[in-house]
Structure formats: C-alpha cells, structure tokens
Amino acid sequence: MASKQMFALILAIVSAVAPFAMSGDIVVGGKEGWRPGFNYTEWAATQKFWVGDNLVFNYPPGVHNVIPVNGAEFKECNVTHSPRNFTSGRDVVPLKTAGRKWYLCGVADHCSKGQKVAITVLPAATPAPAWPPTAPAWPPAAPTPAAPAPSSSIQIMSNTYKEFVVVLIATAVAVLPFAMAADIVIGGQDGWKPDFNYTNWASSMEFRVGDQIVFNYTRGGDNVIPVGGDEFKACNASESSNVVLTSGHDVLLLNSEGRRWYLSGVGDHCLRGQKLVINVVPAATPPPTTPPTPTPTTPPTPTPTLPPPIPSSPSPSPWSPLPPTPQPSNDVPPPSSSLRITADVYQILLLVATTAMIVKA
Predict the structure, then answer these.
(1) Is 315 among the domain residues?
(2) What is the pLDDT of residue 238?
(3) What start and end residues bound the annotated signal peptide (predicted)?
(4) Is 100 in the same domain as 190?
(5) Can you spell out the DSSP letters for 150-168?
(6) What DSSP designation does 64 have?
(7) Given 281, 313, 335, which residue is the final one in a domain?
C-alpha cells in the first residue's frame, strides 16, 4: 500500500510540473522583432504555440503597437472595432485558450506592409489519468486463513519496481530546476537606461543558475556589453572581446555561478550609472527523495490447501537513460523561445511510469 501511495505522489508531481516546464515566452519574429516588411506567415509556420505560452512583441515604443483582432479584421487590416491596443514596446500576451489568434499593427500602413501575424494555439499537455488503477486481489481467498509463501518471481519484480521508482524520482528532481528558473527583467519597469541605480536594484534580487536576464531598451539608442571586473570599474569596454548586444531585447542565460558584469558602451551612459554587477548562485534544487524501505514480514506456514501457482509476469522492456544536455561555456542569448522541456520528454516520463506499473502488477 505504501509503495502505491508513493508512486501516485511521484506521478502527481511530474504531471503538475511538466506543463509549466514546457510553456515559454515566444518572441514574435525572433531577432527581427515586430516591424513592417517581414513575413510573419512563414515565421509562424516554423513555430508551435501552446496554451500557457506567452507571445512577446518587441519594438521601439511609440513607433508601433499590437492590436488583437478577429479573422475578418485581420484580412482587411481593419482595427476600427478592436477595444484593445498594446503600446509598451515589449508587449507580453498570454495564450490562455486554444484556437486561432490574429494580431496586427494599427499604425499607418504597417499592416498592409505585412506587420500582422496569425497563429494556431494548441491545447496544453494534460496530465495522464490517475495511476495506479485498482488491481484485483491476488491470490483468491483460500479456504483456510493461511496464506501462501511469496514466490521468488514476486520478489524479483518487487526489486525491479523499486529501481523504476528511484529512476522516476531522479527524473522528477532533474525537471524541477527548469520549472523554477525565471526571466528577470533588468531594472524592472525602468528597463536598461542611464541615471538609474542598478546597484540598489540588484541588491534586492536573487540570480540563480538557469535564470535568464532580460535587457529592454530602445534599439539603436543603447547596447549591452558583458565585461570583466576591471573594465566594469573603469567604464572601459574597449578591450572587451565579448559580443556587443544591440537588439533592444537582449536575453542572456545564466549558465554558471559567480560574478557577472555588464555595461552600456554608448556615450557616457556607463559613467551615468548604466552598468550592472550581479552574483549568480547555484540553481535551486529540491532535496533528494528516496522510496521508503519496506518492512520485511515473515509469511505464515503454508497449509496443504494451496491455491494454484501464481503465473510469472513478463519482464519490463529494456530502456536507456536520457543523455545529459550540454551546457554552453559562456552566457549567450538563447533562441527566440525560452528553454522548455519538450512533450517527448514528458511522454518518456509517462512511459517509465507505465512500465513500472506493469512490473508491479
């Protein structure tokens, strides 16, 4: 009974975590952002959109906007009946329901120049039905209260089941840090700009391995340069070998712990406080969990009235563990969609769980 309860608890944890780990932020247009003269139909055809994802529209504030419309308005580039209008320059639109969605820019003739996108949102991955199912009692009740001694095949299956439970727990522990990782917007609503105290701001934040830091600013008016401690102190990026980031929505993955320094290389912006130093701490990991050790019991002495022999269950199918995911050596901008655990991985978890149930049965 205790083993069944633990197995059900593990499945509940994996089922609850996996949909969040699979959801992510999808930057519309990728590096191109939200602008006229770009083919968003071809771009959308290469993407998958799920309930729980967020659409992110990046553009210079005051130059464009984002307006959700219906299919007829989308076709005619007509926004006269739309009640909503996003203008922040980094509009985050959650995808809460499945189905077709349409968005366009309502500024001047931008829509007729291709600044519109239509997507199909797929239902989010749903947890598997509750396991384990109720199994019929075995062996059938004997004429006498005496119970038969457990066979060696049952003992072998019990040991195999324990191994599967350990693997399942280890997999759940590996998934949880990704679900707990966060996107941290530098400066919050103020974004990346001169004359802002980033030292005070950073002192109130916590940066962990696996998090992503996001620099938001007007493209063409600023940049982001990762530097060393001495360059940071002197506001000197001339000797920096790092790439200068200029997209206006720069996303950096924190893939290792330690100190990190960033500054703006435009004009006197660094001297006016546009520089940031952070300390990255190890990723949050849940405490290790091990299945409880079953209490051995001594079976009663069998009587002459024994039930028929218990048939042996088939051996579980062979499987291979997932290979480790390689980590990049430096902080580099990730792809347009944030890191997610794919549906294939989730299906593997459910396959492992199902195999464990077969062995247990």
Answers:
(1) no
(2) 72
(3) 1-23
(4) no
(5) PPHHHHHHHHHHHHHHHHH
(6) B
(7) 281
Which CATH number does the domain housing residue 62 bear? 2.60.40.420
Q: Shortest CA distance to 231 belongs to which of 202, 208, 254, 261?
A: 261
Relative to beta strand 212-216, strand 183-185 is parallel
CB burial of 149-183 (b: ≥16 within 10 Å; e: otherwise) equals eeeeeeeebeebbbebbebbbebbeebbbbbbbee
pLDDT per position as a tens digit, 25-41: 999 999 999 999 999 99
Give 132-186 pLDDT, tens digit per residue. 555 555 555 555 555 555 555 445 445 555 666 666 666 655 555 555 567 899 9
**Number of domains forming the structure of the chain:** 2
One-character DSSP codes across 280-312: EEPPP-PPP--PPPPPP-PPPPP-S--PPPPPP
Specify which residues 27 forms β-bridges with.
56
| 93 assigned to some structural domain | yes
154 within domain boundaries: no
Say how far apart CA 339 and CA 282 lie, in whole Å. Answer: 18
Q: How would DSSP label each residue in 244-290?
A: PB-SSEEEEE--S-EEEEEE--STTTTTTT-EEEEEEEPPP-PPP--
Range of the domain at 236: 183-281
Q: Looking at the structure, tell me whether residues 276 and 190 fall in a common domain.
A: yes
Is the Cβ–Cβ distance between 168 and 356 less than 8 Å?
A: yes
Chosen domain end from 122, 148, 173: 122
Q: Place 80 in a pLDDT band, splitting at 50, 70 and 90.
A: confident
The CA–CA distances, whole Å, from 154 to 14, 162, 166, 206 equal 28, 13, 19, 50
DSSP secondary structure of 30-53:
GGG-S-TT--HHHHHHT--EETT-
Claim to verify: residue 105 and residue 191 sit in the same structural domain: no
